[in-house]
Specification:
Blueprint: E1 3-10, H1 27-39, E2 46-47, E3 56-65, H2 76-83, E4 88-95, E5 108-117, E6 130-132, H3 138-145, E7 150-153, E8 168-177, E9 182-189, H4 196-208, H5 214-223, E10 238-244
Parallel strand pairs: 3-10, 5-6
Antiparallel strand pairs: 1-3, 1-4, 2-3, 5-9, 5-10, 7-8, 8-9
Length: about 250
């Protein structure tokens, strides 16, 4: 059976997240409805990451199998986009090997969080970046961010009540860019716990505000206690930037 792979961009502002939820508008729901129209059969898609309500994507990857889709692969993106809302776009489509799975075949995912400073919130950034009136200590943020690189137990940064089997993840890199108007923190890892990036960002924000230092962050990681870490950062500053495959 043909195995399809699509790369999808979306503005998550108006959606209750990626994953289908009864009675709510979701990214998965819109994509599966468009595929149903083209293939004339229900198609269940798999995604590289199930982003939360309000979170955006520049490089979400989905995969699915079907034998009833007759649109040529080089025209599938265009066909999908004629059926999708304007805040969801398929930017690439291809066939992939039989054993490919959007989630389980991924090696690394990169999430980017955006922050900006100013006397007042910027109307045009309000959906895509977190406003901080006072400048953060970005040197301190950069220093503390390096603590997360490597294989660690990230239990202190998992959503409360998470039921995952293991909270150990390997962070390949954390890059802080504070040179531009929009400051960015990029996290690349083999996987992320629920709300992990937003909780890491919330903790780094407290570092930047002077409420925590590098010693405190080490203690938080060692404690594995979510209550000691920073507040969960808002979703609208978060982007799934890219997914890497073998």
């Amino acid at each position: 059976m043909p195995n399809y792979c699509l790369t999808v961009q979306y503005d998550g502002t108006e959606y209750a997240g990626f994953q289908i939820q009864p009675g709510q508008s979701t990214i998965q729901g819109e994509l599966e409805q468009a595929l149903f129209t083209l293939a004339r059969e229900p198609i269940r898609i798999a995604a590289a990451g199930r982003t939360d309500a309000g979170v955006h994507s520049e490089g979400q990857v989905i995969s699915f199998r079907t034998t009833t889709l007759t649109v040529p692969i080089d025209r599938l993106s265009t066909a999908m986009n004629t059926l999708l809302p304007q805040d969801i776009r398929v930017i690439m489509s291809s066939f992939v090997p039989e054993d490919f799975h959007a989630r389980y075949s991924a090696l690394h995912k990169t999430y980017r969080y955006q922050i900006y400073h100013g006397t007042f919130p910027n109307v045009f950034l309000r959906r895509y970046a977190l406003w901080e009136r006072e400048r953060l200590n970005w040197d301190a943020v950069t220093e503390c961010a390096q603590l997360f690189i490597g294989t660690h137990d990230f239990a202190a940064f998992a959503a409360s009540g998470s039921s995952v089997k293991s909270t150990i993840r390997t962070m390949k890199n954390v890059v802080v860019d504070a040179e531009s108007e929009i400051k960015t923190i990029r996290f690349t890892a083999d996987g992320f716990l629920y709300n992990m990036v937003r909780n890491l960002v919330g903790t780094l924000l407290d570092v930047g505000r002077g409420k925590l230092d590098i010693g405190n962050v080490r203690e938080i990681m060692d404690s594995k206690d979510r209550r000691l870490a920073g507040a969960t950062a808002p979703p609208y500053g978060l982007f799934l930037e890219r997914v890497e495959y073998p």
